[in-house]
Write a structure and sequence with these properties.
The complex is a heterodimer of chains A (68) and B (236).
Chain A lengths: L61 E5 L2
Chain B lengths: L6 H7 L13 H8 L9 E5 L4 E4 H11 L6 H11 L6 H6 L7 E4 L2 H5 L14 H17 L21 E3 L17 E6 L9 H12 L11 E2 L7 E2 L1
Parallel strand pairs in B: 3-4
Antiparallel strand pairs in B: 1-2, 3-5, 6-7
Classes of the chains: A little secondary structure (68), B alpha+beta (236).
């Protein structure tokens, strides 16, 4: 964690807080569970899943209604 | 046909391609594509960063033609561009960052299924025109109207193949839960950003994108059409 602390992103207040003093600290993937978006896509031959990360704190997903 | 008169080579020479041949946007093709929307051709869609080129419905249609879209895909492409311009999405930073981030478009609703966007087997892979061309149109808009040009304004260290095209449909038929993001009367589209985690300072990159936008070469005020059958030259 001390090594990670040399990167400014880990200490930015607008990003996920990280305890740089705790070497066993798990860095959370999201700030809040509601940030997890679960989507069903793909075929059905077998159960598979994929995790697709966002761009750290650089961007938020958006949605928009469209008119055909 | 000699090389300078070859429409495919023309678009490569002008750097108006994603590295693959594009469909020449003839006036007839543009008009046919504009038939896919009830919106006016000159209606503004927005300014695409970092070049902040003002894009109209027609400009988006030109790039949809170039990508190989059918007219019925145009409403989705237009909505995709407008969604990316929402501030929380930070398309300005996405365009310029050294990260490999790429926009993913997830479309749902009956219209998405009707026009053939694949959300089933192989949805991220090749073989499905709607997925391939809608996502490609978004990328061509980001390249040509936004000026997110690799090695010039787009400084992604590695980039990634999903920057060519990245569009799927939510498989609502197989979903045990509610439609994503929420059930509503209208079709909805979701854009998100799959990528590995980054240690890149986003604030710095956003600033850099703004700075670099001033160094962009001038872009055409009106995107050209290609009339190979009449003149063999691009009309600007």
């Amino acid at each position: 964690m001390a090594h990670l602390g040399s990167w400014n992103n880990w200490t930015r207040s607008d990003l996920i807080p990280v305890d740089l003093e705790d070497d066993d600290f798990f860095v959370p993937t999201v700030k809040d569970p509601t940030d997890l978006k679960i989507i069903v896509a793909g075929g059905v031959p077998g159960p598979e899943s994929a995790v697709m990360h966002g761009w750290s704190g650089g961007s938020r997903s958006v949605s928009l209604a469209y008119t055909p | 046909m000699s090389e300078p008169e070859d429409e495919f080579e023309f678009f490569f020479e002008k750097s108006w391609s994603d590295g693959l041949p594009v469909i020449p946007p003839t006036e007839a093709r543009i008009e046919r594509l504009l038939g896919g929307t009830s919106r006016g051709a000159n209606e503004p869609v927005g300014e695409i960063p970092p070049a902040f080129e003002a894009a109209s419905v027609r400009d988006i249609a030109v790039h949809a033609v170039m990508a190989g879209c059918k007219p019925e895909y145009l409403p989705v492409v237009l909505a995709g561009v407008e969604a990316m311009l929402q501030e929380p999405f930070n398309i300005n930073g996405i365009q310029a960052t050294m990260h490999a981030v790429a926009p993913l478009m997830i479309v749902n609703g009956p219209y998405a299924k009707k026009i053939g966007i694949n959300g089933g087997l192989g949805c991220f892979g090749p073989g499905f025109r709607a997925n391939a061309t809608i996502g490609r149109a978004i990328r061509l808009v980001l390249l040509n109207l936004g000026g997110g040009i690799p090695q010039i304004t787009s400084m992604s260290t590695f980039s990634q193949p999903s920057r060519f095209t990245f569009c799927i449909r939510e498989n609502e038929d197989e979903s045990p839960g509610a439609r994503f993001p929420k059930r509503s009367a209208s079709d909805r589209m979701k854009m998100s950003l799959p990528s590995p985690p980054s240690r890149t300072p986003s604030l710095y990159l956003t600033t850099r994108a703004g700075t670099r936008s001033a160094t962009l070469l001038p872009r055409p005020t009106r995107w050209p059409t290609w009339e190979a059958g009449t003149t063999g030259r691009a009309r600007i």
